[in-house]
Write a structure and sequence with these properties.
The chain is an alpha+beta fold. About 15% of the residues lie in helices and about 30% in strands. A 4-stranded mixed sheet has the order 2-1-4-6. Strands 3-8-7-5 form a 4-stranded mixed sheet, with no helix packed on it. The radius of gyration is 27 Å and the shape is globular. The structure holds copper (II) ion. The site of copper (II) ion has 6 residues, from loops.
Length: about 400
């Protein structure tokens, strides 16, 4: 029954009670007033939109030691690294191996920045990416950013609406004063970024119920992300989110950034090369710094890409980097829907995204890799696991 119809019915019931003849005039008047107030309350509450939320995240830029291949072997093939693979994954007189000093966006539980917020297994696959900011159209995202590293960094978001004081990038835009504070947050300082999640940041007419955008440091738009300061946020269509801002129409979400991260562009490049001393083979050294990764993992080391047969999952796919970064993620065993079309391979370019849905019908452990030849051999490979529906 519609709200207006309910009000009419309520008023009718009250009016009919006048003819019963057992109530006094003042009682009847009170009942009619109560009905009117009740109707007014129902009408107002049905006209108001769901309360927009402020989504608050505590994020630090922090130096860490990152391992692109914690298992120290080729997980996708189930064997030790071959000689060619060792260029990227093993330490030698001319190659650094899989372990680098990096600076990452690390999520904390509160403004004291004492306790790191642990990731559950659903999000372990994020690897070196920063935390996911979930929000629904109409919300505001507020990031309290503390720079715990020793260089100035920022957070520049894609997609969402920001004033100049929350853009996180410095260039010749004619701004001054407080509008420059967000551009480069100095070592030890804290800054609050605030972004409006307007309709234009949410899914378009042909998008699924949620889409994703990158965010990254932009003091240097090249060196900062190469050092590790990059992450993604997920925006859900208005009315389609749960209380945490996540899309209700999918059981699992995955964010994958396909990227040949050039560790020679990291602010820590010299420090990382220090233990090698005088480098014998500079070609091997430069090649070995090109980490062909998904979320900071090579050769099948990305963990917990798990989903269930018959359950709908959403994959937010990004490219990043330079002219070598044309990537074609490909799933064995199952297919995906993109833009209303069926596919098992998707094409990506640097900082572009595509969002696809997969409802797997084939249980098992499957290959998932970039289909560019050179990228397969250099380690841009993974395994994803489809658990049987009855398990
Ligand atoms: Cu690729």
């Amino acid at each position: 029954m519609k709200m207006k119809e309910m009000c009419v019915l309520l008023t009718r019931i009250r009016l009919q009670s006048r003819h019963v003849g057992v109530k006094t005039a003042s009682n009847q008047w009170m009942n009619m007033m109560r009905s009117a107030l009740l109707c007014l309350a129902i009408l107002i509450s049905s006209a108001l939109p769901a309360f927009a939320k402020e989504r608050v995240y505590y994020v630090a830029a922090q130096d860490v030691i990152w391992d692109y291949a914690p298992s120290q072997d080729n997980q996708m093939m189930g064997r030790e690294f071959s000689e060619d693979e060792q260029v990227f994954a093993a330490k030698s007189a001319s190659t650094i191996g899989s372990t680098y000093k990096k600076t990452l966006y690390i999520e904390y539980t509160d403004a004291s920045f004492n306790t790191v917020k642990e990731r559950d297994s659903d999000w372990a696959h994020l690897g070196f990416l920063g935390p996911v900011f979930h929000a629904e159209v109409g919300d505001t995202i507020k990031v309290i950013f503390k720079n715990k590293s020793d260089r100035p960094y920022s957070i520049h978001p894609h997609g969402v609406f920001y004033e100049k004081s929350s853009e996180g990038a410095r260039y010749n835009d004619g701004t001054s004063g407080n509008d420059l504070l967000d551009d480069a947050v100095q070592s030890g300082e804290t800054y609050i970024y605030q972004w409006e999640v307007r309709e234009r940041a949410g899914p378009g007419p042909k998008d699924p119920d949620s889409i994703a955008w990158l965010y990254h440091s932009h003091v240097s738009g090249i060196q900062d992300p190469s050092t590790g300061l990059i992450g993604a946020m997920i925006i859900t269509r208005k009315g389609a989110a749960d209380t945490l801002g996540r899309p209700r129409d999918v059981a699992r979400e995955f964010i994958n950034v396909f990227w040949v991260t050039d560790e020679s562009l990291s602010w820590h490049a010299d420090k990382n090369a220090e233990p090698l001393g005088q480098i014998e083979d500079t070609d091997a050294f430069e090649e070995g710094n090109l980490m062909h990764n998904i979320n900071g993992y090579i050769y099948g080391n990305i963990p917990d890409l798990r989903l269930k047969e018959g359950e709908k999952s959403r994959w937010y796919l990004f490219g990043f980097g330079s002219e070598v970064d044309l990537h074609t993620p490909h799933w064995h065993g199952n297919t995906v829907l993109w833009d209303g079309r069926r596919a098992d391979t998707i094409d990506l370019l640097p900082a572009s995204h595509k969002i696809v849905d997969m409802t797997p019908d084939a249980p098992g452990t499957w290959m998932y890799h970039c289909h560019v030849n050179d990228h397969i051999s250099a380690g841009m490979t993974a395994l994803y696991h489809v658990l049987p529906a009855n398990e």
